[in-house]
Design goal:
This is EAL domain-containing protein. It comes from Thermosynechococcus sichuanensis E542. By secondary structure, the protein is of the alpha/beta class. The protein has one domain: EAL domain (TIM Barrel), CATH 3.20.20.450. α2 packs across α3 and α3 packs parallel to α5. It binds guanosine-5'-monophosphate (2 copies), manganese (II) ion and sodium ion.
Length: 254
């Protein structure tokens, strides 16, 4: 309850910030996008992660104001890094179910792009399977409008839900992220390997770019590359970084 009270003033007190985690295109050896990950610098409890407060924000509706702020800030930061050595590198912003259904999403996204002078192609929205499962037609319409703006739509945590394949069929998805739970043991677990290979092959035949998340070791990265995965994200490259560090970060030698 205390946390909930504090969350009401977190935005105006400037306690929220965005950390950024790059995605490496293995075929080009270049960063192609960077995911925005929300953090809360709590005055007494220190650095808090989304798992500590996103559910609260969803329940009390603060997620709408917070989500709007994340979108604005991420678009501004992405615009700024175009001139700071990261030209052509896009930004990926996570959206939760409530944002998706209750924000005036299409209007707000296009407003953010305009305000930040950001090319729509540089923005990708990450949704999960739970985002919209009960509102298929409405979701289809919103996603089509977002695609018409030029914004990308990535399906996050792919493979963990019940409806992954349905989503691919029904929605205009432009990217997939293989959930970290399939990556963790991929080197030792043949079943995980088979699942990941199937997802990669599926994405390839549907011509949808794929990113493996939660890649922590060089071995995992190599195996994924061998299986045909063209992009990775995870601690192998770096943990999520504050903006001030992102522009000075460079791809580690592997
Ligand atoms: O930051 P961390 O790596 O702990 O992220 C955990 C999860 O929190 C992510 O998978 C993502 O779905 C969610 N998340 C991170 N940032 C945001 C955000 O800005 N908005 C929403 N709705 N979810 C976020
Ligand atoms: O949107 P999503 O929930 O997928 O966000 C990714 C989450 O995973 C964030 O909380 C991020 O901090 C975390 N993360 C990013 N890279 C790694 C990794 O290599 N290993 C682990 N365990 N977590 C990671
Ligand atoms: Mn994500
Ligand atoms: Na994820």
């Amino acid at each position: 309850l205390r946390l909930e009270n504090d969350l009401h003033t977190a935005l105006e007190h400037g306690e929220l910030s965005i950390y950024y985690q790059p995605q490496l295109d293995l075929t080009k050896g270049k960063i192609h996008a960077i995911e925005a990950l929300l953090r809360w610098h709590h005055p007494r409890q220190g650095l808090l992660y989304p798992k500590h407060f996103i559910d609260i924000a969803e329940e009390n509706g603060l997620i709408l104001a917070i989500g709007r702020w994340v979108l604005q800030q991420a678009c501004r930061d992405c615009h700024a890094w175009q001139q700071q050595g990261l030209a052509g590198v896009g930004v990926a912003v996570n959206l939760s179910a409530r944002q998706f259904l209750h924000m005036n999403l299409v209007e707000e996204v296009s407003q953010c792009l305009r305000d930040a002078h950001l090319a729509p192609e540089l923005l990708t929205l990450e949704i999960t399977e739970t985002t919209a499962i009960h509102h298929v037609q409405r979701t289809q319409l919103i996603l089509q409008e977002l695609r018409a703006l030029g914004v990308g739509i990535t399906l996050d945590d792919f493979g963990t839900g019940y409806a992954s394949l349905n989503y691919l069929k029904q929605f205009p998805i432009t990217g997939l992220k293989i959930d970290r739970s399939f990556i963790t043991d991929i080197e030792g677990d043949r079943q995980d390997q088979a699942i990941v290979k199937a997802i990669i092959d599926l994405a390839k035949s549907l011509e949808i770019p794929i990113v493996a998340e939660g890649v922590e070791t060089w071995g995992q990265g190599q195996l994924l590359q061998h299986l045909g995965c063209k992009a990775i994200q995870g601690y192998l490259l770096t943990e999520p970084l504050p903006y001030s560090q992102v522009i000075h970060w460079s791809i580690p030698r592997m």
